[in-house]
Design brief:
This protein is mainly β and 110 residues long. It is 8% helix and 47% strand. It has one helix at 20-28, and strands at 2-6, 14-18, 37-44, 54-60, 67-73, 76-81, 92-98, 103-109. The strands form two sheets. A four-stranded mixed beta sheet has the order 1-2-7-8.
C-alpha cells in the first residue's frame, strides 16, 4: 500500500491508503487510468463510523479546488479537499476492495 502524508499548520495529520485490490478496482471497474483523479468527499445522509448522518462518497474529478490530502496509485491521484477534511475527524482513510462482496471497503483509523 502506498501513502502520502500532508499536514497543514494547526491541522492533524491524515493519510489516504489505497490497497492493491482497491487500486485495481478503480482501474478496471471504474475505468480510471494514468493522470485521472478520484475525490473523496462527505455527503449528507447515510452513516459512517466517524460522522453521524454523513457518509463518504467518491467521484472522478478533473481539477481539484483546494487539495488538502493526496496519494497516488498506479497513476491515479486520490484526494480530499480542504472543505471535507473535517469529515475524517483526525482519522486516516484506508480503502480496500472486498472481492467476495464485490465492493469497496472504507476503514477509518486514528
Amino acid at each position: 500500500m502506498d501513502k502520502y502524508e500532508f499536514k497543514k499548520e494547526g491541522e492533524q495529520l491524515m493519510k489516504i491508503v489505497i490497497s492493491d485490490p482497491a487500486a485495481k478496482w478503480f482501474k478496471e471497474d471504474f475505468s480510471m487510468g494514468k493522470n485521472d483523479k478520484i475525490k473523496f468527499f462527505s455527503k449528507v445522509y447515510g452513516s459512517s463510523p466517524v460522522q453521524e448522518n454523513f457518509a463518504l462518497g467518491f467521484t472522478a474529478e478533473d481539477a481539484p479546488n483546494k487539495m488538502a490530502v493526496r496519494t497516488e496509485r498506479n497513476g491515479v491521484e486520490f484526494f480530499v479537499e480542504e472543505e471535507d477534511v473535517w469529515f475524517f475527524d483526525g482519522h486516516d482513510l484506508y480503502v480496500d476492495y472486498d472481492e467476495k462482496e464485490d465492493e469497496l471497503r472504507f476503514d477509518y483509523k486514528k
